[in-house]
Structure formats: C-alpha cells, structure tokens
Write a structure and sequence with these properties.
The protein is of the alpha/beta class. The chain has one domain: TIM Barrel, CATH 3.20.20.150. It is built from 10 helices and 10 strands. The two termini are 15 Å apart.
C-alpha cells in the first residue's frame, strides 16, 4: 500500500448505536463501530437508528462512513456448554444478517474460551462447526483477547490452531482477523513485529483496534487507556497501524471527546 493510501485509511471509534453517523462526525472520523442491541444480552439484534437498517445504510453511504458492527460480548461459540454455545451461534447469525442489512463491512467477534478443564481442541472444533454452518453475507472478524488461560485467541499459538480449524470449514476464507493492540500487549504478545506474526498465521489483518493498555504487559487485563495515558508507547501503536495498513477503530475511554483526541493524534502522524 502506498504512502497516500496510509494517509487515507478509514479511522473511527466505537460509539452509541442510536446514530453512528453523528458519532463519526463528532470524532471527525470516516468510520463507525457500534452494537446492534445489548452487548451483554441475548435478545435478537435491532437497529436503533431512526428509519431502521435501510435508512442507516443509505445515510452512511451518503456521508462516506464505513460501518462495523461489534457482536455482543456474551457470545462464546467455543465453549462446551451447550446452553451458551448454541444460543451464541444463533445470535451470531442474527447479528451478521442484520449487519449486512445496514451495509456493514464486517462483524467483530471475540474468540471465546473453553471451560477450565476443557481440551482446547474441542473449542477450535466448535469454531469450525460454527463457521461451517454460518451464512455470512459480511465477513466475521475474530478479535484476539487479553485474558483467560483457556482462551481461543489470546496467545498466538492458540490463534494458529484456531485458524487451522477454521480453514477446514466451508466459508473459512470469509473469516478475517481483528488485531487489538491492548489485548495483544496485555495478553503477553510483544507488539514489535506483531503484524507480521499475525499475518504469518492468518494471512491477513482486516481491522485494527488501536487501544492503549491501562495495565502492564502480560497482565491479562482488558482495560483500555487513551493513547497518552497507558503502558504502550505511542510509537508502538503507530507502528502497528502503519504496518497493518487496515482500517482502524479506537475504543479508548472518554467517549466522543476522548476518542476524538486519540483519532486526531493518529491522523497527525499519518500525514
């Protein structure tokens, strides 16, 4: 990708779902990430934007805003617990279907985790089964996570095994990767050369969640910080963004104002 393409990267933040277009405008961004409904609940996803899915799709297109949907946090398609895994598959399908209706570029979903005594191979195979059965009109982007000893996507050796399993599923080539800088750092993965290491496993980085970490390296804590306030050096965050050359979402504290500041910091250094 050329230097000009780097300067033109889609950059935005995660905002309220009632009006993602206004959220992007407040951040002076050309990208918006949001939830479709309650991120901590199991109810079917809904579009909060006035006029519904078609109105949001048309408004985003008119404004030049790229939309991304984050799946609910409760989803865990890897677990051996049927009471969680089966509803997770259903809710993921509903989310992906509705995300396509709003014109989203992708759906971000956490890698999930197995139970304490589960063989992780079962979790990887549950992901394969999920992808095999998923009708995905938009890509799902699996995000690395910060904590959990039996997580599917914390350590990169686990991500490699997960990707091997997904590669065996029909539609596995439609699954992308979302690299979260806070999660990688807090999860114990050095950010130096992290993009190349991810691409060696997945062949791709489709999206970057650019977040600083409130906590120290390998803490296992998923606590985001603003760029100037966390444990990750600004140069490391910038290096990930410029190396990945993928759209960037800022999920830092402070709402519109806090994220707008971090987006401005990033854009200044991309010009």
């Amino acid at each position: 990708m050329s230097e000009q393409a780097i300067k033109g990267l889609a950059v935005g933040g995660h905002g309220e779902q009632q009006d993602p277009i206004a959220e992007a405008a407040a951040r002076r961004a050309n990208l918006a990430q949001f939830f479709l409904g309650d991120p901590q609940g199991w109810k079917a996803p809904t579009v909060a934007y006035e006029g519904g899915a078609a109105a949001l799709r048309d408004a985003a297109e008119a404004a030049g805003i790229t939309l991304y949907v984050h799946a609910p946090y409760v989803l865990n398609v890897a677990t051996s617990n049927n009471r969680i895994r089966i509803p997770s598959r259903k809710l993921l399908q509903q989310t992906v279907t509705l995300a396509a209706e709003v014109g989203a570029a992708g759906v971000i979903v956490h890698g999930g985790h197995g139970l304490k005594d589960d063989d992780p191979e079962g979790g990887f195979d549950n992901w394969r089964k999920c992808v095999d059965r998923l009708d995905a009109p938009v890509p799902i982007l699996i995000e690395n996570t910060a904590g959990g000893d039996n997580a599917m996507a914390r350590r990169f050796d686990r991500i490699a095994r997960l990707w091997d399993a997904i590669g065996q599923a029909e539609g596995g080539d439609r699954v992308g990767f979302c690299l979260d800088t806070c999660h990688a750092f807090a999860g114990g993965e050095d950010l130096d050369g992290v993009v190349d290491r991810v691409k060696a496993i997945t062949g791709r980085v489709d999206l970057v969640h650019a977040n600083n970490s409130r906590d120290t390296f390998d803490s296992g804590a998923d606590r985001h910080a603003n760029f100037a306030d966390g444990e990750i050096a600004g140069e490391s965050l910038l290096h990930v963004v410029t190396t990945a050359k993928a759209p960037v979402i800022v999920e830092t504290p402070g709402g519109r104002e806090g994220q707008a500041g971090d987006i401005a910091w990033l854009r200044e250094r991309l010009t």
